[in-house]
From TrEMBL:
Protein name (database record): High mobility group protein 20A
One Pfam family matching this protein: HMG_box
Record's compositionally biased regions (Basic residues): 58-72
UniProt GO MF annotations: DNA binding
Length: 325
């Protein structure tokens, strides 16, 4: 194109030597170099294709839009997965931080722990990291042994059967191995309020620990509700028993008052009838203070009727005339 343009420039006449006005004698440009609309469109498309080929767009990772990730069946016989050093630090210090901050919520406690973990030195973290490494070695060893068992083979068959059912149902089966992982920029994101990078093993372990704690709290809450229901029923029974005892106590109190009044009336009647009847041995006469002892001695004399026959006959005569209240 540059060569053709230079040819067009050569067709222009140079200025005359006599200083007269310039006269440009221009030959028409060839039709193949005219900047027509079709040529401009073609050049634009070529440039666009060149840019797209030289700078391919990076495909965004993650799950396809509109698709929900299907969680495969969980193998209950598989060995317990290892915990990271960070999760071990959380589990070990959560109760301590919660005790120091009784009004803090779960997320606030976790945020404090995450901040403390980020401030720990490498030598302080080493203990938790070493334990995590040992636990990981234990898990890998147990997993290798478990994969040789019949239970694992049965689980794999069931998993394969489930996968085929999903493929027959909607034509796709999404697992972590069939979908492109999130790109690096998405991996570098962080949860607001936490110092834990998201989409990492540490973040997933943190979620597992939180879910386990929530399950434990729900279980404890259910147990407490059952205990409260039992205690409420027990309290109601106790209230009913107390009300019943109060009614009985009131009745007994009324009976005691009536008996006391009857006893006083009986004492007065005995005192009045035996006022001039002294005991044969002591010549003691009854008084309001000694009427009880007087009647006891009188009763002892009745046990020997032969010795006090005359006295006893007088007593019987008085008692027969006695007007009981």
């Amino acid at each position: 194109m540059r060569h053709l343009i230079m040819q067009g420039e050569n067709l222009t006449a140079p200025p005359s030597n006599n200083g007269s006005s310039h006269t440009n004698i221009s030959a028409p440009l060839p039709s193949d170099i005219n900047p027509t609309e079709s040529n401009m469109s073609m050049n634009t498309d070529q440039d666009s294709n060149l840019m797209e080929s030289d700078f391919p767009q990076k495909r965004r990772g993650g799950w396809p839009k509109g698709r929900k990730r299907r969680r495969g069946p969980r193998d209950m016989n598989a060995p317990k997965q290892p915990l990271t050093g960070y999760v071990r630090y959380l589990n070990e210090n959560r109760e301590k931080v919660r005790g120091e901050n009784p009004g803090a919520s779960f997320s606030e406690v976790t945020k404090i722990l995450a901040c403390d973990w980020s401030k720990l030195g490498s030598h302080e973290k080493q203990k938790y990291l070493e334990e995590a490494e040992k636990d990981k070695e234990r898990y890998m060893k147990e997993l290798e042994q478990y994969q040789q068992t019949e239970a694992y083979k049965i689980f794999k068959k069931q998993q394969e059967k489930k996968r085929k059912e999903y493929e027959d149902g909607d034509g796709s089966y999404y697992t972590s191995s069939t979908v492109e992982p999130m790109n690096e920029t998405q991996h570098d994101g962080e949860v607001p309020g936490f110092d834990i990078p998201i989409f990492t093993e540490e973040f997933l372990d943190h979620n597992k620990a939180r879910e386990a704690e929530l399950r434990q709290l729900r279980k404890s809450n259910t147990e407490y509700e059952e205990q409260n229901a039992i205690l409420t029923k027990h309290i109601e029974n106790m209230k009913s028993a107390i009300e019943k005892l109060e009614v009985e106590n009131s009745q007994q109190h009324s009976n005691n008052i009536a008996l006391q009044q009857h006893l006083e009336a009986l004492r007065n009647a005995l005192l009045e009838n035996f006022a001039d009847f002294p005991l044969p041995s002591t010549n003691e006469l009854p008084t309001p203070e000694t009427i009880d002892s007087y009647m006891n001695q009188l009763h002892s004399l009745l046990e020997n009727p032969t010795e006090n026959e005359v006295f006893i006959s007088k007593i019987r005569e008085i008692v027969s005339k006695l007007d009981y209240p």
